[in-house]
Amino acid sequence: MLTRLRFRRDFRVIVRCLSDKPSDGDGKAPESKSKPAVTQKSSENATEKIQELLKLMLAEPKIKESEYKDKFATAPVIQRRKKGDEIEVKTEKIEESITKAAGEVAQAIGGNVKQTEAELLSRVLGKINQSSTTLSDLLVGMKVDRSKEGEDQKPPETRGQQVKRLVSKPKVTQETRYSQRKGKPADSEPRGEKRKMPAVSQPTVVNIFSGQPLGIFKAKEGNYGTTLDVWENLKQRELTLATSQQPTNYFQKMILWTEQGKIWKFPIDNEQGLEEEQNVHFSEHIFLDSHLEGWCPKKGPIRHFMELVCVGLSKNAFYTVQEKKDHIMWYKEYFESKKDLLTEVGAWDQAAKTSAEASQS
Amino acid sequence: MYSNVVVPRQWTRFACLCRSLTTIEGQKLPQTSKSSDGISPPPRIPRGPTDILQALAATVGNDPTAAHYKYHDDPYLIPLSNFRKRAYALSAEAGRKAAAWIRDEHAELFTTRVFDPPTKIKTPYSNADPKIEAFSPKPIYNDESKVTEDDLKYTIKNALLEDSMTVFKLLGGVGSVNEELKLQFLQLLCFYNEKEPDSLEWLEERWFSANMRERQAATWRLGGLADQIFESMDPKTPEAYCAMIQGMAKYYQAERAHNMAQEAISKGIPLSTSVYNALIGCIGFLKEGTALRIEALKSLLGQMNDQGMSPNNETLSACLRSLSAWGGGKVLQQMALQVVAEFKQIGIQPGLAAYYYLLCLFCKERGPRFDILSTIITELEKQESLDAKEPADTNFFITAMGVCSDHLQDINMAERLHAILMKGDNYKLVGDAYKESIYYRHYVTVACRHAPFEKTLELLDTLIPNVYVPEPTVMEEIIKTLEVGGAGDRLAQTWSQLVVFGHGKRVKLVERLLEAMINTYSGQEPEVQSKIRAAAADMLNFGQAVSEEQETKDVRTPVQKLSATAVCSIIELCSDTTDKADPNWKSVDEALRRLRREEAAGVPARPQALADVAQKAATIGLPGIAATAVTYLAECGFEEAMSASVQVLGTMLNRPVQEVETLLTEQHSSLAGSLHPAAQAVAEAYNIAKTGGPVLQDRERSSSSSDSDSESSSDDE
């Protein structure tokens, strides 16, 4: 910042001394000093002077460059545009005055007027306005000079410096951007901390029951209106869903499984899930002969067969009583459908008789 | 006399027999507690099926040193990072889901009874006897299914929304389902807004699904099936009205819900408390501005009273929910207090959800600090156990802990709150994995910042890693605390924790840790120091392994590299040894190589440290390392390079500094060949530092050739 200020001051001085000369016409304070000196003294002296002048001027393009660089690095394009007009106007004016001044100086020096002028201008204007077409022929020698001078003036950045600069720059911009964007919060945070520090001891205690009642409701027995059973169930479901967690030990797992109906409930009872048969006495499962009464022959192959069926069924632990009955009845129907054949063979006839007799007796 | 004695005795014996018989037969005990022999058994206490299990489960305490029960108890399968916790739990559940899928897809394999004769196979029958509903295949409904009303009942009962919609369509839609069933179906549709709810069966999925907060916008499906069903109902029962209004209000279709409520009232249809609760919940959508909204809320409560509806717990939380949703400010806070007082007057205590909304309303991030939490906690501490009354209850603990951490910054409050959560089975109120981790994030943060150091360590030991794995931000907080507390061994452990928790690749954290290590290093016991050194060396190896992995596996996201400052810290730590044979010197060497290969971002912030290391290495007799360090400094262009190289060279050659300086200012080529390669490199570095920049490319080549010459030449040290 300081250097830039200095540069700017230098710049102003140069501009003033250059631009004042032509505008004031001939003979005013600065000119009267420099010009006579140049003319009076020999050509060596003149070249010295020129060198001095050039060096003075050289300070100026450096400013420009650094200024541009700074602007380019920190400010967005828009801002540069805004200032661009000003700069352009300024440079235009400066350009004119410089050209004039250079011409005058060159003439004063004598010798190869054109060349001195060109040298002067190329040094000065090369940096200000490189795209200027009128001066383009004068800028031929510029590059070589500048590169040499540049090397002399400024040692190349080492890698460490480069990286340091690069690292430090974004940090700065980031910080500024952060503070810009956050604005208030960033400002208020330290303040908040300050405020918090004393406040840590005493946040305002509010008793949540300290309010004044609205006075709308009166306590009375509940009347909750229409109830929606499915809705209530679903609400309960959502609630269990919101609070359900994985079991954290085996007992909880068993609780979960019990609730899901995957395992036997406590107290353990090996007839769980067989509620259908709960009120059926075991005798009904085992003594099935009674179901043969009334249709089955008292003896003979069919009776024998059916008794075996009954024994088999009595040992079946899986059928319900009703299923066992149905099973027997199925045989009854089967035999009855084959009645003709059976009577022919002589197995059923007898049965019919005996059953008739039995029923009579 | 004799018989008189005998008979009663026999009589009691008989009674005894009878009793035992009834016990055996019907598992019933006489309810009378008096018996004639003076022995009075206590009356039977009816027990539910899970009571014994619950009693047993209550005897099992928490073991923070063990992983959660759901994980395999195997050292290789215990997850230690959040990612793994999630992955393992979900994989286990994925297995269960796969099994369920096969069961449902191949239901025919499970619906035959093997003992049935082939002609008698009953198709819809389970192989199991008794049939276990939970294990039987679930019906799959598609467009070809043959369905009955029973199917609709089943789907409604189990909240299978999409299936129920399919069944409803298959049954013939609006026209051909009876009114009662239609009403039930309407309730289901309204409750879920025609969106399939989460399944009850898959706990892990729910636990790990990050249920973001419900969107507060009108999401009610206009003109959907619910609307159609409601239109078709004739006469429209009060239940239908209630279901519709509640559904619309639940999904913030506020205007229509209120209009329909007015319509119902004008028709003389009795509404319900739940309807008013729902309406209160969305009243903010009707009006703009705090004053108008409060007015509307009051008038709605008045209307509710006029209709003779008694408010309940949910009315209170609905009011507070609305109030908290309207922003903050004194007016709303006053109103909230009034509402709470009003309900307390009629004997309704606020529930957890109500407290949650109060906290939202009072404890704003940047607002003035209010301490309403202490009252709430005192209130909750009085209660034996907390019951969840509505799903929003699960928001309480996470919010309250957040208030403890950010708003009040009060560790005592946080501890009291945590004690409440740990009491009984209150832990169910923690919500899901996401909320749980936020809860602990707040808790650990507040403990790190405000608790005494010992207590913080105790807490960290309990929670980490089985209950909670800290996120990077919390990890940073922990590192800061350890740094302040000067716990060097803890910091060394923290590195392994970082690796285990999957934060090892987070460069920022590692750098922070290194910084903390450097800061605490000097004051530690030698034993601890060696631990820290080992950790630092391991960081380097880890980074190496990671970058190798990246190269071989072609990882998409590039791994961030440690900054040069961090690598320098590693070098600094590792070099703190006077033993030349210490393996840590290898790490130092490796780190320096890495620096020179530009595998670290930026340049070191404290080049002086590197210079010191170079000096030390030179003193100890490791000229190679010293040379590398100095060369690096020179290449980076640090001013320290010059003095460092002079000093190092001085140490190497065992000559005073001035002499070395004069030696160095001499013609460079004269030095070449007469020096040890390492010393040569140092001299080279000096030149680089002096002239600035790698000017001596060609000379380096020549010096490298002279290196081979000087290899044979004796060491001048």
TrEMBL record, chain A:
Specify whether Phosphoprotein is a keyword of the entry: no
Biased composition annotated in UniProt, kind: Basic and acidic residues: 20-34, 145-157, 184-196
Q: Which organism is it from?
A: Spodoptera frugiperda
- Determine if Ribosomal protein is one of this entry's keywords: yes
- Write down the PANTHER family for this protein, in alphabetical order: MITOCHONDRIAL RIBOSOMAL PROTEIN S31 (PTHR13231), SMALL RIBOSOMAL SUBUNIT PROTEIN MS31 (PTHR13231:SF3)
Q: Which domain of life is it from?
A: Eukaryota
Task: Name a single GO cellular component.
Answer: mitochondrial small ribosomal subunit
GO terms of molecular function:
structural constituent of ribosome
Family as reported in the entry's similarity comment: Belongs to the mitochondrion-specific ribosomal protein mS31 family.
Which residue ranges does the record annotate as region Disordered? 20-46, 145-200
**Compartment annotation:** Mitochondrion
Q: Which Pfam families match?
A: MRP-S31 (PF15433)
Q: Which InterPro entries match?
A: MRP-S31 (IPR026299)
| Alphabetical UniProt keywords | Mitochondrion, Ribonucleoprotein, Ribosomal protein, Transit peptide
Q: What is this protein called?
A: Small ribosomal subunit protein mS31
Automatic annotation (TrEMBL), chain B:
One Gene Ontology term from the biological process aspect of the record: mitochondrial translation
Keywords, A to Z?
Mitochondrion, Repeat, Transit peptide
Q: Which domain of life is it from?
A: Eukaryota
Compositional bias segments (type: Acidic residues): 708-717
Q: Which residues form a coiled coil?
A: none
Q: Name one GO cellular component term.
A: mitochondrion
- Indicate where this protein resides in the cell: Mitochondrion
Q: Which Pfam families match?
A: Rib_mS39_PPR (PF22330)
Membrane-spanning residues where? none
One function term, GO molecular function aspect: rRNA binding
Q: Which InterPro entries match?
A: ARM-type_fold (IPR016024), PTCD3 (IPR037387), Rib_mS39_PPR (IPR055063), TPR-like_helical_dom_sf (IPR011990)
Give the region (Disordered) as residue ranges: 28-48, 690-717
PANTHER family on file? PENTATRICOPEPTIDE REPEAT DOMAIN-CONTAINING PROTEIN 3, SMALL RIBOSOMAL SUBUNIT PROTEIN MS39
Task: Return the protein name.
Answer: Protein PTCD3 homolog, mitochondrial
- What is the native source organism of this protein? Spodoptera frugiperda (Fall armyworm)
